[in-house]
Design goal:
This protein has helices spanning 59-76, 92-107, 147-160, 168-174, 180-193; strands spanning 28-33, 41-45, 48-54, 115-119, 127-130, 135-139. With 211 residues, the chain is an alpha/beta fold. The protein folds into two domains: 1-87, no CATH class; 92-193, Metalloproteases ("zincins"), catalytic domain (Zincin-like, 2-Layer Sandwich). A three-stranded mixed sheet has the order 1-3-2. Strand 5 (127-130) and strand 6 form a beta hairpin. Helix 2 (92-107) crosses helix 3 and helix 3 packs across helix 5. The longest helix has 18 residues, at 59-76.
Length: 211
């Protein structure tokens, strides 16, 4: 308990959920999920720093990971407003970490990829996923595009780890993301405007399949 015996030297005191804030005073919410087994994610949601952890974590593990993830958010300089001040995930490691955050925010952490990476040889698709081994690949052509478009493609592929096809259950998953419609329209516009610059097959559907 928070008011129990003193902590060992070098350890952090247990966070008080009612009073926990970031260094600059933003509220913090710790979300435990029974579906989340090992991964931890942190993201901004309406001005609140959310740290998503497995329900099985002990209080000591919660204490450690909340501290780590709040420090990560501080270093990233992110603060809640969509797309503002947000660092783009340029490296594969950053992209994988961002995928974990998106899965936590929109899919309750259920989509857990084994790897997420940028690829330069994916010309007819914006992204692809292999549900059997949990791998996700995003086209490097996405990197100069708005972050909300990249997030849509990443969520699209994460959703394929849960539902292989493009059926009604698949699209219901993506309804949670508010920019799904305009991101699809954006990609369709890019494909139309650069129809001679991109190989046939690139469309508003990230992995090139018909809806």
């Amino acid at each position: 308990m928070a008011g129990a015996a003193s902590a060992r030297p070098g350890t952090l005191p247990a966070p008080d959920p009612a009073a926990l804030t970031t260094a600059d005073g933003a509220p913090v919410e710790v979300r435990r999920s029974a579906r989340r087994r090992r991964t931890v994610a942190a993201f901004w949601e309406d001005g609140t720093a959310v740290v998503a952890i497995p329900a099985s974590f002990s209080r000591a593990q919660e204490r450690e990971w909340v501290h780590r993830m709040l420090e990560k958010l501080r270093l990233q300089g992110e603060r809640g407003t969509r797309g503002a001040g947000k660092r783009r995930p340029r490296s594969d490691a950053a992209l994988a970490a961002h995928a974990s955050e998106l899965s936590a925010k929109y899919f309750a952490g259920r989509a857990v990829p084994s790897s997420v990476r940028w690829v330069s040889n994916q010309n007819s698709r914006w992204g692809s996923a292999t549900p059997s081994d949990g791998t996700i690949r995003l086209s490097a052509k996405l990197q100069p595009m708005p972050q909300w478009v990249i997030d849509y493609v990443l969520l699209h592929e994460l959703a394929h780890l849960l539902v292989a096809g493009h059926n009604a259950a698949f699209w219901r998953l993506l309804e949670a993301y508010p920019d799904t419609g305009r991101a699809k329209a954006f990609l369709e516009g890019v494909s139309f405007a650069t129809s001679r610059g991109l190989p046939p097959g690139a469309s508003g559907d990230p992995d090139g399949d018909a809806d």
